[in-house]
Amino acid sequence: MAAVTLRGIRKKLGTAPILRGIDLAIAHGEFTVLVGPSGCGKSTLLRTVAGLEEPDEGTIHLDDRDVTRAAPRDRDIAMVFQSYALYPHLTVRENLGFGLAIRGTAKTDIDVRVAEVSRMLNIEALLDRYPREMSGGQRQRVAMGRAIARRPAVFLFDEPLSNLDAALRSQVRVEIKRLHAGLGATMLYVTHDQVEAMTLADRLVVLRAGAVEQQGPPLEVYERPASRFVAAFLGSPAMNFVTAVMGADGATATAEGLRLAVRPALPGSKVLLGVRPHDVVPADDGGIALRVDVVEPMGFEAYAHGTVGGEPFVARLDGSVALPKPGDLLRLTVPKRAVHRFDPETERALSEEPG
Amino acid sequence: MNQRSRWWSELLVHAALLVAVAFALYPVLWVVSLALSPGGTPSPRAIPLPTAVSLDNFRAVLGTHDTAGRWIFGRQLFNSVAVALCTAAASVALATPSAYALARMRFVGERGGMRVLLATQMFPGVATAVPLYVILDGLKLLDTRAGLVLVYATTALPFAMFQLRGAFEAIPRELEEAAMVDGATRWQAFVKVILPAARPAIAVTMLFAFMSAWNEFILAATFLSHEEAFTLPVALQRYVGEHDAQWGRFAAGAMIVSVPVMAVFYAVQRHLVGGLTAGSVKG
């Protein structure tokens, strides 16, 4: 176990900046998830921690040890690759023991460790198979086992579940969480999947265009997104945005049936309001008018897609009540505390509303 | 109607294929027929079937002795095998690390080097025969197996490098990254992970180099003048001389030379097809 500290990590690919000054402190045993859209630099950052990429600027410390220029093998880290990267010519047993064998661990110790890991991951029956003889889910397990067998100070995961089908993915997700609890190891996990990010993380780090947009405990980030980008990225379906105009009193903004007290501003100026689909409540009249064009019933809930004042808008409805039909006009109210406010220019969150 | 037109197209395809097969096999059948016919001269016939079957030609070729009574065929067979094996080993031993560097590393002269290699492939081998003769003469390597290996290995090298570069590029980079994170040095990752994964491609490349050396005639005929230094293709050619053409022996010799190569091909072909990397990464 080790703490990982990144200071001012910068990296360019040619002239294009990939990482633009990343500072990150990951505590002992913490599960940190790097999340962001593709191209945000999250994988590059992970590979930089692994030593597979070298930063142009900045330092990486494992505990007090500066490993910025250290070779991957000297960092005491293990990595689970998106493609699993199992050695094709070795059996599962040899794959699991590879890292130990190459570091000169005694054969008997390797056998003990491999047995232990295969029991932990329930892959004992696969030990004599080759990677090509296994399903995707089994390979994924072996890839995790290979990392665990080494007992590294830090685990790195590069989108380890993205090649699994949906059912398996949620199952392995739970397993990773259980593993983390059992091993108590420091883990750094990269994903573009916001469900993985929310469910696994002790701490969520949202990256955007090579910089940290926001970090914190997942629920805090979800509930208090620092920008429109974070707000739109977390949550599914994504948050709705409506532009409101400040009223004559300079403290109330209105938009398409939403009225909201906000921080005083010039009358007529604009404010961006964000509403999560899960926060709307159907009303008999008044409130927002959603013109429905598509309804997605999920059983226990349903999503009504449509427009509000010409802008796309999605509302979550209870699956047990009568669902609207395309063409219907749906009336919705939003609890005031559920409305997020953003500056339409900078797209940063506006601080707490007055009173 | 539909069924019928499909039947016709099947028929046409097969007819075309049969013509192609006949075209390819006809000369081969002639060689077989000649080799099995007793006597030395071919009679002009349309269908290559020997009138009588005998193994005299094979016996004569295999049992060739020189004027001093030494078993010269055995000597020449050894020359061929030794030259071809050394060519395969030397060219692949040199091509493997250089192809890996070309596939994985960025360095000055990388692209230019590839272009030069490509350019060398555009010249017919014979074009270099005279300068090579001069060089080998200067090195006192004419009429030696070492001289021939030197020439063959350098000509086989560019092709081997192209072939292996492609093979290394097809191996996912993650494999060696995983090995390096696991504790391997770059060299260990290459030896313990990449080389085994590239084994089928290396085998094919070796086989190619082996065959090119095994079958090569023009350069061998240029550099070798003593009977005991001959490789089999040169020895064979001597059966068809200016004054005396022993076609039957020539044909029998041709079969003796080609059958082992065919056997090797059949033996290894199933290893050549399936890539060893199957299953290492999601695919």
What can you see in these coordinates?
The complex is a heterodimer of chains A (355) and B (283). In chain A, α2 (92-102) packs across α3 (107-121). Chain A is built from 8 helices and 20 strands. In chain A, the strands form 4 sheets. A 6-stranded mixed β-sheet of chain A has the order 6-7-8-3-9-10, sandwiched between helices. The relative contact order of chain A is 0.12. The longest helix of chain A is centred in the middle third of the chain and has 18 residues, at 166-183. Chain A has 2 domains: 4-233, 3-Layer(aba) Sandwich (Rossmann fold); 240-342, Nucleic acid-binding proteins (OB fold (Dihydrolipoamide Acetyltransferase, E2P)), CATH 2.40.50. Chain A is α+β, with helices and mostly antiparallel strands. Helices cover 24% and strands 34% of the residues of chain A. Chain A starts with a strand and ends in a 13-residue tail after the last strand. Chain B is mainly α and 283 residues long. Chain B has 2 domains: 2-54, no CATH class; 70-273, MetI-like fold (Orthogonal Bundle), CATH 1.10.3720.10. Chain B is built from 12 helices and no strands. The longest helix of chain B has 35 residues, at 2-36. Residues 275-280 of chain B have low confidence and may be disordered. At the A-B interface, β6, α2 and α4 of A face α7 and α8 of B.
